[in-house]
Task: structure prediction
Amino acid sequence: MAVDAPFADRLSARVDAVGPLCAGLDPHPGRLPAGLDAPAWAEATAALVADGVAAVKPQLAFFGDDWAAVERAARAARARGALVVADAKRGDIGSTAAAYAARLLAPEAPFDALTVNPYLGADSLAPFVEQAARAGKGLFVLVRTSNAGAADLQELALAGGPRGAGAPGEGGADVDEVVCEAVARLVAAVGRPHRGAVGRSLVGAVVGLTTPAARLARLRARLPDAPWLVPGWGAQGGDPAHLRAALPHAPLGGPRAGGLARARRGGARGPPGGPRRRARRDRPG
Result:
């Protein structure tokens, strides 16, 4: 499906229209309502929530090899105006990265953006950025994730690397940069040439709401033009108060906030007639 505006402009317009939530579509086996398989649940849920969210985010791992199923869910969301973020966290180099990008970010693919892993370096991001720019699509690059083990690597200090003034709450101390901050600088650099009319880049960042507020502020300072996808609001324990640091431009990531916030909540209802189940909501930031 061809697009008529850069990804960041379409995201900003959608956030202005309906707010910054992004709904995750994760059809866990064993949690589906009686009588619905994963494809049917995903398509029905996408249609149910799309009117009220900026984006939906199907986790491709739960769809296996059923590409038609994830495409049906994506098209159901897009038909109602929501953007679709394919959560694949792809990362590779050379022709392999180019093949992933060509498949998931093709003009005719029913996805508006893709999550990618940057830990192979800038050359691993280049094929995704180039394909996204050609097709009018976007990327969300893992920067500081919301899982419990994120700090094992992402918070390691880079001895001998850049230093800078600490964020509010650090007393303005001159502190070592950590790994996720170096990744943030990389994301900003590769995204800077690809800004839309609203000044936002097609290259966004995944930054978890479980990140300490001071770190969120330091990351936002490194990523002034990047939309954020902010997971971790809900069952993962992210503090909603930290949204101010993650989404500084408007309360709870409102108009022109430039990103998506994602939350995980227990007990949300699936499609009509289904039992209560765990669902995920995200918020653009």
Summary: The chain is about 30% helix and 20% strand. Residues 122-135 form the longest helix (14 residues).
